[in-house]
Amino acid sequence: MANWPAIGSIILPNVGGWVNGLYFAGQIRSEEGKSWYDNLKKAPWNPPKWVFGPAWTVLYSSMGYASYLVWEECGGFTESSVLPLTLYGSQLALNWSWTPIFFGMKDYKLAFIEIIVLGVAATATTISFVHYNKTAAALMLPYLGWLTYASSLSYYIWKNNPKSEPRVTEIKDEKTQ
Description:
Helices cover 68% and strands 0% of the residues. By secondary structure, it is mainly α.
């Protein structure tokens, strides 16, 4: 018999990642085959683009299953599960928010600040999980490691790719000429 709560908890975090990925993938491609993202100055330790999809699938699945373990340990949505699952939901929302900030707004500074806040929220989630299920907390550790790595990538891009400001051109009044 299928454990639907466990399956749902694994699928849910991935859905946000897939939606972001599908939506923004079309916005970063150009007709020439290169995108604005390809033209960014990236850290020497930046992985190839194909790594991100599989890495995030594993990380989302792992953190989703961790949330299920806490949910199960607490007997579902109970008074004892409010804090850890609220922290989990908050950090997940922050996680999903980074992509529109970086790829949609192209605001590299805000994206870096956001990923730092996300890291703090994910750490708080992990600490809260350890009180209910040590395996759940352990499942969050690769995610915390990846967030640290991703934060370094985000910082590098912010510092090495100044956001271009719109050019201001002088407007001449034809009546005064």
